[in-house]
Structures are given as structure tokens and as C-alpha cells.
């Protein structure tokens, strides 16, 4: 794994590098290289030879450019979509929610709070190392059209449902729900695991936990369920049998 | 049918349109004007699900449609009967009621949607009265047909009844239009009053902040003077002590969440700003660590402001309430405005003690973790979302954090519906 540091103050740059060197030794992490730079362009050039899944510590203000670090983070995301990015800056520049949304930033690390600085640098490193162990999820449902860019692991999908508006579909997961533009018909055709069991629902067969013939309900855990159409219940039963049997 | 769609703003489904003709045709077997009765029942039944069981509203639209059509048709028919080329005229006049209805809606422009939104208010009682009057008129109208069928000489009285019918109907419509206008005016007045109150609190808060900064400036001036003395005396221990004192005293307060409000200056929509400031101030009052991030100016929310404010205020109320029994409560709000392409994203992120909350249930009416009338909150949000194709919501609830992400885009950039 590579760790990139963007910081134009040499003293602070070296301070962070020393701290990271020490953490890397403490955690007995191997194959970790730390690369420092004082300009965004230089960091991007260094990235050209580095594989993905890196860890980045970025200062926000570089020289006269007030948002150099934030802009760089957006460029990094294009190249390294699953890398770990933390910003190292002063409190007045904190925008954690905004940059969590824009570039999935992990931490805003305060330069002027020694304890938090120490803790969050360490946490960033641990998070990035843990991330290396995870296999890259390639089993994702992805939908891209003019209005939508959606990527979700199949295992998280419970079902899709219609909303009160044509073309607006609601995706329901265990801890999340989100609306997007699409059509149930097209979604049902995208994968054999997806099944249209009702005019208003497309379900993920893999996450079905129970089927109630009597009430014609299909369950995903205790209190999440959707309706099954009368003429689909037999087919649903067969598909479920084939999958789980 | 056209009249019904124009007035109620409802689109009938294809199967409803197709089934309407044979079903209404059944009415022809009934005596005389059974077709009208049939149409009345059909409109009512078709409309009921769309109006979410607001029976009186559904009834109103069906009564309105049928009586309007029969009345105008009747008058025209009578007039045409006087003319010599009756047979030709009879066909020409068929579309006239539809046109007349359009003209009326254009001229008076009553906002029937408001009746939807404010159904529970006095509207219900008002609709009951109006519905009974309309029904009475219909009965009178139909009985006049009957009487005419019995006795040809009855036509004079029929004209009189038609005339009265017409006058009463016109008055009724006028009354509804006025009433709706009044209700609209009331709503706007209410909004203005709330906005003014919120702005007042906001101003007080800003003044408080200004005073605090002023005080700090004054203190720091004094500190500089004493530092200067200590430096002149080369008194390092004294300098260290002064430095530490300053850090201890001002390091934290200036990071105080109260100063978050300065971000609100990037909200260029006054009503939105006053709503946000009011909710934030009340959250701070409850000791919830609150932060606001608004990096770029927010100038447009791309949907009707009233609806947008309603949604945000429900989200914020819920966020504040969810924090009631959390040990270390937090509320974080961010507005992210994009230029290319235009888009506004609002994130409301809060701690919650509802760790086992099922987010797939909370949008259904009457399901709420709260008591009292707050329970309707998210159901209202759902209804508003279903009305605006350019609003998209994403909800997450995991590990004691609840997050709503609402995205709005200009209407032009979405699929035609």
C-alpha cells in the first residue's frame, strides 16, 4: 500500500511522515511506502505508477490555492475509487459532511488538536490497512442512464418498488433506501436473481427468508415484506426452490 | 370524462376510460337519465383511491362533473330546440360543455389542489354542504325530466328549474373559488408570520455572536499589550503563561457551534435561511452539537418552496427529536449546490437511539416511533416526493446514525412523465 501526503509546510509534512513511520512499525504493516509532495501535480505524477487502494492525507490550502486539496481529492477519486482519503487541516476549513458526500472522505484531521491528530491519523491508517484485506466487490448491481448512476452489491438488495410517479423507483436495502429513475421491467431482466413478483415489486430472490402463501407475502427478515401477485406465486415458489434447494 | 380530468387534475387510467363506456352504457337501460347516475357512481369509485379515501373530495368532483355536464347540456339542448336546424345543432353542441368548463377554470382559476392539501381543515365540512346542495340540484333537474316526460306542457317549468339550477351552480362555484383564495391568503400570511419570528431569533443570535467577537478582540488587545511588556523585559515564563492562558480561554469558544451559523450566509433563499436558523437554534438550545456546512451559495431549490420547506422542516424536527435520549447528541447539516449540471443536495445526519429502526416501515402512514400528530411526518414527505419527479430521497439508518439525503434538480433535466 502507498501512503500519499500533500502538505506544503515542510515541517508539518515531516512531522506527519515520522508519525506514520512509527505507526507502520507499531502495527507491523509490511509493504507500506510513504510518499510526500508539496504540490497536487506532483502527487498525481507519483500516483501514475502506484496501484489503487492507497491512503491519502491531504492539506486543503496549498500556497495561494484555497481549495487545492479538495480539488485534488476529486481527481484522486476518478483514479482510485476505493482508496482512503483524509484531510489534514485547521478547524475553520472543516466540511466533513460535504466531503464525505463528494469524495467519501474518511476524516477531517485537525492540525491544531494534538490528541485528535494522533488518534485520527492512526485510525485512517488502520482503516486503509483493513481495506486491503477485503476482496473487491465485483458482484454489484449497477444501473447507469442519463439520470442515474447507481452501484450496489447484490447481497444488500432486498427489493425494488414503484413510487407514486412513473419512472421513479425505490430501491430498498436493509439499512438504506434510495430513489432513482428506472423501470421495474428493465430491472427484472437484468439478473436471474431478480424476480417481478407483483405489478409494483421486483425482489432479490437470494434475500428472501420466508413466503406466506396464505397472505401472499414474501418476507426479507421479520418485518420487511412485499406483496406477491396471485398469478406469480407458483412461479416464485419454483424459483425459490431452485435457488435454495 | 374530459371535464372530470380538467377539474380534478386526475388522469384516469386506460382501463378506466375503456370500461367507462360500456358501464355507463348500462345506465341507458335504466329509466331516462340513468346514464348520468351511472357516470356519477363510476367517477366516484375511480376517483376514490387517487384521493386517498378523502370521500367528500371524490364525491365533490364527480357531482361537479355530472351536474355541470347535464346542466349545460340541458340548457343548450333547450336553446337548440328552438332553432330550426335542431338535428345538426345537436351534434355541434356536444363539445360545448367541455369548452365552457375550460373557460371557467381558466377565468376563475380555483386552486383545487389546495383542497387536497388542507383536507382536514374546514374543507371537509364545507364540501359536505356543497355536495348536498349539488345532489339536491341534480335530483331537481332529473325530476324535471321525469315530469316533462309525463306531461309535454311541463317544459316551461323545466326552463325555470334549469335557470335556478344554473344560478345556484354559478354561485356555488364562485363561493368555492373565493373560499380557496381566502385559504391561500391565510396560508401565506401564516408562513410570513413564522418567517418573521424566525428571522428575529436569527438576528438576535447574530448580534450575540458579534458581541462575543467584539469582546474577544478587546481582550486580545489587552493581551498583546501585556505580551509587549513581557517581551521588552525578556520574561519568557510570563510570555509562556500568557500564551497558555489565551489558548485555554479562546481556543475552544471560537470553535463553539454557535459560530456555525455564519455558514448560513450562503443560503440565498430567505425563507430557507430562517427555517434553518430557527431549527438550529432550537437544537443548540437542547445541547445538541450542531454543525452546518454550506460551501457554495444556494440560490434555487428547483421545487415549490413551500413543499421544500415542509420536507426539510419535518426532517429537522425528526432529527432533533431522535436525539432526545442520546448521550452525545449530534446534528450535522450540509447543503451542497452544484452548477454543472445544476443540482442541490441536502444532507441531514443525526445520532439516534433507535438502533433497530426499520427504515422500510417509517414512511408508511401512522407508523412512527413518536406519539401524537408527529407520526404523520414522513408519510407527508412520501406524498410530497410522489408529487415532484425532480426530488430524490435517500435514507440510511445504521450504527446509531440516521441520514436523509435529498437531491433536487431542475425539472427540465428529468425524463418526461
From TrEMBL, chain A:
SMART domains: LytTR
InterPro entries cross-referenced by the UniProt entry: CheY-like_superfamily, LytR-like, LytTR_DNA-bd_dom, Sig_transdc_resp-reg_receiver
Function: Required for high-level post-exponential phase expression of a series of secreted proteins.
List of residues that carry 4-aspartylphosphate: 59
Pfam families attached to this UniProt entry: LytTR
Organism, scientific name: Agrilactobacillus composti DSM 18527 = JCM 14202
Lineage summary: Bacteria, Bacillati, Bacillota, Bacilli, Lactobacillales
SUPFAM superfamilies membership: CheY-like
Keywords: Activator, Cytoplasm, Phosphoprotein, Two-component regulatory system
One Gene Ontology MF term: DNA binding
Residue ranges occupied by any Response regulatory domain in the UniProt entry: 2-126
Ranges of residues in domain HTH LytTR-type: 141-242
Protein name: Response regulator protein
Superkingdom, taxonomy of origin: Bacteria
Amino acid at each position: 500500500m502507498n501512503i500519499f501526503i500533500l502538505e506544503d509546510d515542510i515541517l508539518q509534512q515531516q512531522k506527519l511522515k515520522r508519525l506514520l513511520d512509527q505507526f507502520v512499525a507499531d502495527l507491523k504493516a509490511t509493504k507500506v511506502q510513504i510518499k510526500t509532495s508539496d504540490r497536487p501535480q506532483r502527487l498525481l505524477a507519483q500516483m501514475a505508477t502506484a496501484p489503487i487502494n492507497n491512503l491519502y492525507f491531504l492539506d486543503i490550502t496549498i500556497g495561494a490555492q484555497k481549495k487545492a486539496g479538495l480539488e485534488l481529492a476529486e481527481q484522486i477519486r476518478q483514479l482510485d475509487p476505493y482508496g482512503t482519503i483524509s484531510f489534514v487541516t485547521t478547524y475553520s476549513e472543516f466540511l466533513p459532511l460535504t466531503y464525505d458526500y463528494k469524495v467519501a472522505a474518511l476524516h477531517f484531521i485537525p492540525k491544531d488538536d494534538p490528541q485528535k491528530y494522533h488518534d485520527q491519523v492512526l485510525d485512517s491508517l488502520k482503516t486503509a490497512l483493513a481495506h486491503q484485506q477485503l476482496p473487491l466487490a465485483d458482484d454489484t448491481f449497477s444501473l447507469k442512464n442519463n439520470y442515474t448512476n447507481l452501484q450496489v452489491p447484490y447481497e444488500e438488495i432486498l427489493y425494488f418498488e414503484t413510487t407514486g410517479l412513473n419512472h421513479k423507483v425505490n430501491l430498498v436495502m436493509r439499512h438504506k433506501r434510495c430513489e432513482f429513475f428506472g423501470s421495474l421491467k428493465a430491472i427484472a431482466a437484468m439478473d436471474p436473481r431478480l424476480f417481478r413478483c407483483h405489478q409494483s415489486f421486483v425482489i432479490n430472490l437470494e434475500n428472501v427468508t420466508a413466503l406466506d402463501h396464505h397472505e401472499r407475502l414474501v418476507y426479507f427478515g421479520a418485518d420487511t415484506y412485499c406483496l406477491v401477485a396471485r398469478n406469480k406465486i407458483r412461479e416464485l415458489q419454483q424459483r425459490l426452490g431452485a435457488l435454495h434447494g | 370524462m374530459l371535464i372530470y380530468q380538467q377539474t380534478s387534475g386526475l388522469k384516469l387510467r386506460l382501463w378506466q376510460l375503456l370500461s367507462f363506456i360500456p358501464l355507463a352504457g348500462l345506465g341507458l337501460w335504466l329509466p331516462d337519465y340513468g346514464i348520468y347516475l351511472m357516470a356519477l357512481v363510476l367517477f366516484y369509485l375511480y376517483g376514490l383511491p387517487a384521493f386517498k379515501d378523502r370521500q367528500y373530495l371524490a364525491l365533490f368532483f364527480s357531482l361537479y362533473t355530472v351536474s355541470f355536464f347535464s346542466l349545460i347540456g340541458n340548457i343548450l339542448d333547450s336553446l337548440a330546440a328552438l332553432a330550426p336546424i335542431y338535428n345538426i345543432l345537436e351534434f355541434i353542441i356536444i363539445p360545448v360543455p367541455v369548452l365552457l368548463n375550460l373557460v371557467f377554470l381558466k377565468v376563475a382559476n380555483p386552486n383545487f389542489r389546495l383542497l387536497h392539501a388542507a383536507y382536514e381543515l374546514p374543507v371537509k365540512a364545507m364540501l359536505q354542504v356543497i355536495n348536498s346542495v349539488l345532489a339536491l340540484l341534480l335530483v331537481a333537474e332529473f325530476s324535471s325530466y321525469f315530469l316533462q316526460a309525463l306531461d309535454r306542457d311541463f317544459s316551461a317549468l323545466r326552463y325555470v328549474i334549469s335557470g335556478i339550477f344554473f344560478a345556484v351552480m354559478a354561485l356555488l362555484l364562485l363561493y368555492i373559488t373565493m373560499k380557496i383564495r381566502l385559504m391561500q391568503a391565510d396560508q401565506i400570511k401564516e408562513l410570513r408570520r413564522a418567517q418573521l419570528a424566525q428571522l428575529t431569533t436569527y438576528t438576535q443570535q447574530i448580534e450575540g455572536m458579534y458581541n462575543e467577537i467584539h469582546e474577544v478582540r478587546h481582550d486580545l488587545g489587552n493581551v498583546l499589550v501585556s505580551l509587549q511588556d513581557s517581551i521588552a523585559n525578556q520574561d519568557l515564563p510570563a510570555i509562556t503563561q500568557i500564551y497558555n492562558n489565551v489558548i485555554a480561554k479562546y481556543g475552544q469558544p471560537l470553535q463553539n457551534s454557535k459560530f456555525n451559523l455564519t455558514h448560513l450566509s450562503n443560503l440565498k433563499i430567505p425563507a430557507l435561511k430562517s427555517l434553518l436558523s430557527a431549527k438550529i437554534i432550537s437544537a443548540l438550545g437542547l445541547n445538541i452539537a450542531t454543525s452546518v456546512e454550506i460551501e457554495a451559495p444556494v440560490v434555487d431549490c428547483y421545487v415549490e418552496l413551500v413543499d421544500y420547506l415542509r420536507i426539510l422542516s419535518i426532517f429537522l424536527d425528526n432529527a432533533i427529536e431522535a436525539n432526545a435520549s442520546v448521550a452525545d447528541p449530534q446534528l450535522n447539516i450540509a447543503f451542497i449546490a452544484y452548477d454543472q449540471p445544476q443540482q442541490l443536495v441536502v444532507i441531514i445526519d443525526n445520532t439516534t437511539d433507535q438502533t433497530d429502526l426499520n427504515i422500510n416501515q417509517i414512511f408508511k402512514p401512522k407508523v412512527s416511533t413518536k406519539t401524537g400528530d408527529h407520526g404523520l411526518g414522513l408519510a407527508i414527505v412520501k406524498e410530497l416526493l410522489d408529487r415532484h419527479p425532480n426530488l430524490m430521497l435517500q435514507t440510511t439508518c445504521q450504527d446509531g446514525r440516521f441520514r436523509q439525503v435529498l437531491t433536487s434538480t431542475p425539472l427540465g433535466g428529468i425524463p418526461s412523465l
